[in-house]
Design a protein that fits this description.
By secondary structure, the chain is mainly alpha-helical. It has helices spanning 3-20, 22-31, 34-41, 46-54, 58-65, 70-79, 82-91, 94-101, 106-114, 123-126, 140-148, 186-189, 203-212, 233-249; strands spanning 133-135, 158-162, 168-173, 218-221, 227-231. The chain has two domains: 3-116, Annexin V, domain 1; 126-239, CBS-domain (Roll), CATH 3.10.580.10. The N and C termini lie far apart (51 Å).
Length: 251
């Protein structure tokens, strides 16, 4: 077996290990030297990288992330859980932060710097920054084409429509796309979101909104009404379990 085949096999085994036991995989990879961890993780699928770095001690996770190819590192950072992404951000040296700032949305960078102040039971700690958004001027056909490129498990319940500066303008339920003309503009077929959240809002407040209506996905906006994340009902449940576990393990 040549070196290339050996590396391919090692990465395949690593991916299967992460899928089967992400917490243990994070501990094992964190125990390796940084260059060894990078060697195993560089060629992995993004979902595997996200799963393992979410569970890794921030200093080690940051050391690995900044040694990955830049585009890959940028994608992974923006899809990590917000509290973990914020911790990694603090670990980055200033030059690397500045390089990221030149490519990341300003609203996301502001979110990372503010996240350390979010309470454990806040929307900001439970929301996801992985969402599908289009501009008001994009056609329905363009949105459908983007969704076709996503794996089935990643298809969102709803897509969001943004203005020129990233401000939330509307929402389009994915199941309704089949009823719209492909040439129609997203801004003309969108509906107005009935509720929005702020990252500082409590999960209890979000839970009441989910319980009161048929909302499947709640947009999270900052003070400028810029869309910065989304919260699904399972995000509230998962975060509540984490909070309970944190209480039990700190006694």
């Amino acid at each position: 077996m040549n070196p290339q085949q050996t590396n391919t096999l090692a990465r395949l085994i690593t991916e299967k290990y992460i899928a089967a036991a992400p917490d243990k995989a994070a501990q094992t990879l964190a125990a390796l030297a940084t260059h060894e961890g990078v060697l195993l993780l560089t060629g992995l699928k993004a979902q595997s990288l996200i799963a393992v770095l979410n569970r890794m001690e921030p200093a080690k996770a940051a050391a690995i992330l900044r040694r990955l190819p830049f585009k890959q590192a940028q994608y992974v950072l923006t899809h990590l859980e917000v509290p973990q992404a914020a911790k990694l951000w603090k670990e980055f040296a200033t030059p690397y932060q500045e390089r990221l700032k030149s490519t990341l949305p300003a609203a996301f960078v502001e979110l990372l710097t503010a996240a350390s102040g979010f309470a454990a039971d806040s929307v900001g700690c439970a929301m996801q920054t992985d969402f599908v958004a289009v501009s008001t001027e994009e056609k329905v056909s363009d949105l459908v084409a983007r969704l076709k490129n996503l794996p089935r498990p990643k298809l969102p319940l709803a897509c969001f429509v943004q203005g020129k500066n990233g401000e939330l303008k509307g929402i389009i339920r994915t199941v309704e796309l089949a009823f719209f003309s492909p040439s129609a503009l997203c801004g003309s077929v969108m509906g107005k979101p009935t509720h929005t959240l702020r990252p500082q809002d409590t999960l209890q407040a979000a839970q009441k909104i989910f319980a009161a209506g048929h909302v499947q996905l709640l947009p999270v906006v900052n003070e400028e009404k810029i869309l910065i994340g989304v919260l699904a009902p399972q995000g509230v449940v998962t975060s509540s379990k984490k909070t309970l576990w944190q209480k039990l393990t700190t006694k």
